[in-house]
Amino acid sequence: MLAGYRAQLFQALIAGALLPFAFAPYGQSWLAPLVLAWLFHLIWRQTPCPRRAFALGYLFGLGQFGVGVWWVYVSMHRYSGAGVAAAGGLTVLLVAFLALYPAVASAFTGWLFKRNAKGWEADPANWRPMLVLPSIWIGVEWLRGWLLTGFPWLEVGYSQIDAPLAGFAPLVGEYGTGWLTVLTAAVLWAIWRAKALPTQNRQAGHWVAVAVILWLAGAGFKAVPWTQPAGDPFRVALLQGDISQDLKWRPETRRRILAAYLDMTRRNWGADLIVWPETAVPAFYHQVREGLFLPLEREAAARGSDLLVGVPMLESATDRYYNALIGLGEASGRYYKRHLVPFGEFLPLRSLLGFILEVLQIPLSDFSAGDDDQALIVAAGFPVAATICYEDAFARDALVGLPEAAYMVNVSNDAWFGDTIAPHQHLQMARMRALEGGRYLLRATNTGITAVIDSRGKVKAQAASFVRTSLTETIVPLAGATPYVIWGDWPLWLGMLGILGWVVFDRKKGNATE
Question: What residues are annotated to the active site?
Answer without folding.
Answer: 278, 337, 389
